[in-house]
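Support reply, case 0932

Customer input (verbatim):
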Amino acid sequence: MADIEDFQQPAGPGPYDIESSATCPMPVCVKGCASCPLGAACRKHHDLARPDSPPFPSPDSSVDVEGDPSDGVAPADDALEHEVRDIISAEGQLKQAQEEQIANTVQPTSNDPMRYPDPFPLGQTDIDRLLELELATDQDQGFQIKHLKKGVTVGKKRIEGTNIYLGRASGNVEGHPGIVMRLLWDFAVRRKWDSFFLEQVLLEQVDPSREFVYFTGKTPPLITKRDFVQARYLTINEDKTLYASVYKSLEHPAKPLRKHFIRGHVFFSGFVCRRVSATETKVTMVTHTDFKGMLPTWIINQMISVVALKWVSNLRKAVARLGSSIAPALEED
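Our regenerated output:
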């Protein structure tokens, strides 16, 4: 995988003047690409990873960006324009196909049931799988693991039947595991610190630990917004030293496909908050998600380390800022 410096172009006249800084080593076009037909999507300057593109936060200057040549490296400059155009075209086609599906679907009326018709799809087997993935080492289950600074670890593994990696990120935070899980589970609390979400809606609650939820997330410029419908399940061990939540996508009658959004698919994801000392909790995020569309693998893989480090950093700040004012997950404030 090419280093960040490989994307920096020599300064010169015209729209391709770029610069970087200590706070953002990603090259940023200082001319605004005013004459570039690709506009905000110009990946020649790595614009999809610019700090003002919401899902990709500003990287720390010393982050080591992960990459694997076998995953597909960044294409040569003369191929970038064609690839960006292909991405934009594919996004449009996928959006059109979904909107045609919406038009041909009978939408539920006010008399139709708005409850999930089948048994709740998550249980202890899913929690056990999550905990196995949390504890897997680089010798287990084909994980490739990388240790970043500030005690953050990222890992990925191939999943049979899909070309999308399962990813994992973990790090320690100060605080009780129930408080950390509350920051992740409770929509009202999470929106106070996690800016990725546009909407978060509770569709149906079986009980406080088993719910159906809907959310929408931010995307880079020219990429259609994504939405997700999921079941989620939360468990707590007897001595409250371990909190684990799992998620998976499904269809729910209360939230059919929407225009202007592409429905993403979560094969499996979850969070584990495990007490490791009297004052610290190890938090682990596992995700295996298909965002649909044609976002290149090399972009996603390059951003794994950057996003993981920023996510753990933001969670640590959230615990420090909000932890003293909230109760553990599934408890009243």
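We compared this against your earlier run and they match. Two observations from our side: The chain has five helices and twelve strands. The mean pLDDT is 75. Please reopen the case if you see a mismatch on your end.
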